[in-house]
């Protein structure tokens, strides 16, 4: 996916503040944080949105979900946090590469 923003970030062509990376997954801080801690978890595989998720993606989706509490704790959100997956234009999605928002810790710094 040549001109997908999050594919470019996952290939390292656009810099990001990384939270976690392995062969299949990247997590990085949101450029416009909506909370004191706000990061995104993406599969490196280009999946447009939750509307494109298929049974073949089950293991990858499970991995994304199990990374949520691990990374949230590492980012200081052990008391709790919110997870949001905006899906489709009607669901507020702006970047069409599947991503989980994880945020918490109070209001973003001004
Ligand atoms: P969506 O509305 O698609 O769920 O959210 C996309 C998110 O990506 C937004 O919260 C936005 O701030 C974030 N974002 C957009 N462009 C960039 C970027 O270049 N770098 C990073 N780190 N985040 C971005
Ligand atoms: Zn992509």
TrEMBL record:
Coiled coil: none
Residue span of motif Histidine triad motif: 97-101
Family annotation (PROSITE patterns): HIT_1, HIT_2
InterPro entries the UniProt entry points to: Histidine_triad_CS, Histidine_triad_HIT, HIT-like, HIT-like_sf
Catalytic site positions: 99
Alphabetized Pfam families for the sequence: HIT
Residue stretches making up the HIT domain: 5-110
Gene Ontology MF terms in the entry: catalytic activity
PANTHER family (UniProt xref): HISTIDINE TRIAD HIT PROTEIN (PTHR23089)
Protein's recorded name: Histidine triad nucleotide-binding protein
Lineage: Bacteria, Pseudomonadati, Pseudomonadota, Betaproteobacteria, Neisseriales
């Amino acid at each position: 996916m040549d001109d997908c923003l999050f594919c470019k970030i996952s290939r390292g062509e656009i810099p990001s503040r990384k939270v976690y990376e392995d062969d299949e997954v990247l997590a990085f801080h949101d450029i416009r944080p909506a909370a004191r801690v706000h990061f995104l978890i993406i599969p490196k595989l280009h999946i447009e949105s939750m509307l494109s998720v298929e049974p073949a993606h089950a293991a990858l989706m499970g991995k994304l979900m199990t990374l949520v509490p691990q990374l949230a704790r590492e980012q200081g959100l052990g008391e709790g946090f919110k997870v949001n997956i905006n899906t489709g234009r009607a669901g507020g999605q702006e970047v069409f590469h599947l991503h989980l928002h994880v945020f918490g810790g109070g209001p973003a710094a001004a």
